[in-house]
Amino acid sequence: MLRYKCTIAYDGSGFSGYQIQPKGRTVQGELEAALKRIHKDEDIHVTGSGRTDAGVHAVGQVIHFDSPYNIPIDRWPIVLNSALPDDISVQHIEEVTSDFHARYSVIQKEYRYKVYTGKIRDPFSRNYAYHFPYEINEDQMRQASQYLIGTHDFTSFCSAKTEVIDRVRTINEISFIRSNHELEVRFVGNGFLYNMVRILMGTLLEVGIGKRNPEEVPIILEKKNRVNAGKTAPSQGLYLWKVYYE
Amino acid sequence: MLRYKCTIAYDGSGFSGYQIQPKGRTVQGELEAALKRIHKDEDIHVTGSGRTDAGVHAVGQVIHFDSPYNIPIDRWPIVLNSALPDDISVQHIEEVTSDFHARYSVIQKEYRYKVYTGKIRDPFSRNYAYHFPYEINEDQMRQASQYLIGTHDFTSFCSAKTEVIDRVRTINEISFIRSNHELEVRFVGNGFLYNMVRILMGTLLEVGIGKRNPEEVPIILEKKNRVNAGKTAPSQGLYLWKVYYE
User: Does the model's ipTM exceed the 0.90 cut?
Assistant: First the structure.
């Protein structure tokens, strides 16, 4: 068996999320169905770097799978893409050793969150950014984001439904990219809890419109209670941008 | 009655085209349904600058309608957008005199055609650009486009189903905007025949990949027969960008 590491992009609009489930169209489901067809009806399990929710996009999700096939490496993306629906695309594929694991070998992840700030809604970004037509003070958001950098217990910034016990994570970077009516926020860290980027983003936006002070952020962290943070920003603005391995 | 000139944007992916028809969701149909709701069940007819086909987008389509309502002008977009589905958006609205006509008063139109040239397909542009993963010689395309500028009989560059008798049109500008994996071609002229931009684009792309010489273009024009031009480029790359009035 050969192990393949595979970088994929998908438009999350048409999926009930990454992870396979009994009902609804999923990214993992489509990947496994495509691999099954390629492998003459043999089941091939796909392991992702992590899940993404319904509506969340990926530019650089990483998965691995094992295959008995030794297809030339530059043929693999073509073979896979011709078997996949057009809202998923294999961007890159490489052979890796069997100790590579798409989830356990992750050292860092990058998410981006896109906000469309135009006053009037834009039909082209409705599934690809969060329409937030308010005056935003980016400086205040930057200040607030500084309190999030570093190693913290992010219990206040994850869904109350989070089952993981250890909620300590390290955020290495939060940066802001502005162009015209689009604000893109980059989050880089060693791991993100359930809904964490969306709650961080929702809270930063509340700072941006003056509903909260940047100085509230360390207090929210300290409370270790989801109710203290801001709203969960909607899924369509979120992109799993890159997964970093050793 | 007051006449309103209204600039609208729409994502063409979910429409069977602009013009109302017995079956299928149309832009005109949605606009008239929204106006009817706003006008307490009164029928309000909408006149567009022209039709766009299924899958074709608009950034600046212009329509006019007459209304007995004297809603403050800055309230109109809000009222209309709250009644419209989220793949159509009213960008701007102004009151005009009753001699303004969205179709007959047009002096010039601008269309843009987007091509995605990345080798591997991009799920995010599948409905918003034509995936054309070949080496393109832009210089050759520029050369070919020069033969199209000016006043010509464009019979060879419109659908064989075109019913209009007079196929003489003037193209004032064809320009190329390149960024990364995207090539955007701008077409400005006094009018465009049925499928004209898509056939022009398909022909230019055939020049771009060396299937045709730029010098063939004047010969194609002269033949006045659709069969001599290139393929019709697909609808999802086309945008009605701007409509110019006096």
Answer: yes
